[in-house]
């Protein structure tokens, strides 16, 4: 049975860098508070007109160029985001059009910070089943246009950034390469612990002036609850997926956790007993880019940690829903 192997990852972040010092001009916060609580030093925000599907397109073009593939080589697109350009259709179709590949299927995934791993699970299953051989899996987010950039929204706004990363996966028969296992979970009892209420079809009309004024259009987060669940669920699911594959934490060359918050990633590392060289974080430069965060970090982790063909890479996610999961792949 073939396996899904990572070929390369292309990334794109907007040119505009927003430092913690810049945020202090818009809200009552400080570099010290943000760095101490989250580890974030700066993030990238789009300029008007640049959106989620365009960033995904630019990341995908880079990935295709790096691999020497043409867009026409792709059998399918899987697109993970919570910040689509429009209510519908999903950004997979806009990316399909930008890549100029009419007819190629485009699946949209909306599992927030776990979106890349939910997408990877689908890609892996398609490739194992022999349905497709070459798939583009992209995570892209434009948070900045949906944040409350005032003191009222400071607990959420300082955390998030914009960016995209696109992974190319292909079928391989090499027993020393490819995705070994993916494990996914969700607990919808916490759906409103990290969410944005509107616009939404439960409301008629879907958006009103009152909603805008009452903050319903902005993300809301029970920060401490998210923290407490993330530091339990991520180590738990990493151990579980390792056990399924008959492997141990000592076998991991590098763990790339979802870049939610540096404090969360450090707690997960301690809980799993991993050395510093076995974990990679880059939230300091990008903030939390949700569905893009794992591939954006993975693309930098491969050279930074000297990952070679056959090395074991572990990925772990936790996010809104709550959703969480982990994956293991031989590079
Ligand atoms: N700047 C300055 N002060 C702030 C800010 C800010 N940006 N945000 C909140 N505060 C204030 C609060 O108003 C509060 O003030 P008060 O004591 O006068 O009421 C004080 O700081 C402490 O607030 P808490 O919410 O208790 O702060 P906490 O120590 O819990 O840190 C944080 C908040 C960083 C959000 C923390 O709960 C956390 O890390 N949670 C995890 C959430 C997370 O990482 N989410 C990522 C997105 S979800 C995901 O990707 C999984």
SSE topology:
Layout: E1 3-12, E2 17-19, H1 20-23, H2 31-38, E3 42-44, H3 52-67, E4 76-80, H4 91-99, E5 106-109, H5 115-128, E6 134-141, H6 154-157, E7 163-172, E8 178-186, E9 194-195, H7 209-213, E10 220-221, H8 223-245, E11 254-257, H9 262-272, H10 283-286, H11 293-304, E12 312-319, E13 323-330
Helix pairs in contact: 3-4, 8-9
The structure holds acetyl coenzyme *A (ACO).
Description:
It is a single chain. This protein is an alpha/beta fold and 331 residues long. The chain folds into 2 domains: 170 residues, Peroxisomal Thiolase, Chain A, domain 1 (3-Layer(aba) Sandwich); 153 residues, Peroxisomal Thiolase, Chain A, domain 1, CATH 3.40.47. The strands form 4 sheets. Strands 1-7-6-4-5 form a 5-stranded mixed β-sheet, sandwiched between helices. A 4-stranded mixed β-sheet has the order 8-13-12-11, with helices on both faces. Helix 8 packs parallel to helix 9. The model has no long low-confidence stretch (mean pLDDT 97). The site of acetyl coenzyme *A has 24 residues, from helix 2, helix 6, helix 8, helix 9 and strand 12. Acetyl coenzyme *A binds next to helix 2, helix 6, helix 8, helix 9 and strand 12.
